[in-house]
Amino acid sequence: MADRKVTTEALREMKRSGRKIVALTAYDHLLAQVLDSAGVDILLVGDSVATVVQGLDTTVPVTMEQMVYHAEMVSRAAKRAFVVADMPFLSFQGSAQEALHNAGRLMKESRVEAIKLEGGKPVLDIVRRLTDAGIPVMGHLGLTPQSIHQFGTYKVRGRKDEDAQQILEDAVALEAAGVFAMVLEKIPAPLAATVTREVQVPTIGIGAGSECDGQVLVTYDMLGLFSRFKPRFVRRYLELATEIGKSVADYCRDVRSGEFPSQDESY
C-alpha cells in the first residue's frame, strides 16, 4: 500500500484493517513534495494558512481565491497522498448551491480530491448536495475554528454531557449524509473513541486522543516553525524556527565578514 495512490476507498480500508492514517497540512509545492515523499497519507490544505502563513489571528479572513491558489500548488506536488482542501468561512454556509459552486471551483481549478467543511447538523443538506454531485466531503467536528467568534474560546469541546451527545449525534448524521471521513478536533479522548467506534468512516484526530483512526497536525507546528504558541496536543519533532534562525545568523556573519562567497563559490 505504501506506493499506491491514496483514495477514499484506501482510507476506508485503512480503518477496517486498523492501519493508522497519517495527515499533515500543506500550503506550498515544495513542502508538499517533501511530505508526500515521506509517506503522508493525506495532505490537508487547511485554512490554517491564515495563522501560520499569513500571520492572522483566526482562519476567518481566508478567501476562496487564496484557498484555490494554495491548493493548486499542493495538488501538483502530490503523487501518492490524498489531497483535501478546506472550504473557507462563508464559502458554503449561505446555501447548498453556493457551496456546490465553490467546492466545484476547488475541485476543478486546484485539482484537489476532496473538500472539508466544518459543522454538524446545520450543514447536512450541504453535505448531501455535494456528495450527490460527486464531490467527496470530509467533515469536521469539535473545535471548529471558523466559529471562534461565536464560541469566544479555543477550549476543549464536548466536556459537558449534552455537548458530547451533540457531537456524537452530529458524527452519525454526517456519516449518513455521505462524508467519507471526519476530523475530530480538541475533544476528550473517550468521546473521540466513542465516535470512532460508532461511525464506519475514518476519524482523524487533532487533540482528540489516540483512538481515532488517524492523526493530523499543522506541519508548521510539528516542525517547530510556528512558535507563537504551542498547543498541548502538538508534538514538536524539530525546532525549525531556532535552527533556521541560527543558519541565517551564520549567513549574515559570513556575508558581512567577506567569508561568503569563497573562491570555490565564485565563477
CATH homologous superfamily heading of the largest domain: Phosphoenolpyruvate-binding domains
Percent strand equals 5-15%
SSE series: HEHEHHEHEHEHHEHEEHH
Mean pLDDT: 96
Which overall shape is indicated by the principal axes computed on the Cα atoms? globular
Reported for the largest beta sheet, the result is: 8 strands, parallel, barrel
How does the helix and strand content classify structurally?
alpha/beta
Number of helices: 11
Radius of gyration: 20 Å
CATH topology assignment of the largest domain: TIM Barrel
Uncertain residue segments? none
Helix content: 40-55%
**End-to-end span in angstroms?**
47 Å
| SS elements, strand count | 8
Task: Report the CATH C-level class of the largest domain.
Answer: Alpha Beta
Characterise the protein shown here.
The chain is an alpha/beta fold and about 270 residues long. It folds into 2 domains: about 230 residues, Phosphoenolpyruvate-binding domains (TIM Barrel); about 25 residues, no CATH class. The protein is globular and about 65 Å long. The mean pLDDT is about 95. Helix 2 crosses helix 4 and helix 4 packs parallel to helix 5. Strand 6, helix 9 and strand 7 form a beta-alpha-beta unit. About 45% of the residues are buried. It contains 11 helices and 8 strands.
In short:
The chain contains eleven helices and eight strands. By secondary structure, it is an alpha/beta fold.
What's the SSE blueprint?
Blueprint: H1 8-17, E1 21-25, H2 29-38, E2 42-45, H3 49-52, H4 64-77, E3 82-86, H5 96-110, E4 114-116, H6 124-132, E5 137-142, H7 148-151, H8 161-177, E6 181-185, H9 189-198, E7 203-206, E8 214-217, H10 219-222, H11 240-257
Parallel strand pairs: 1-2, 1-8, 2-3, 3-4, 4-5, 5-6, 6-7, 7-8
Helix pairs in contact: 2-4, 4-5, 5-6, 8-9
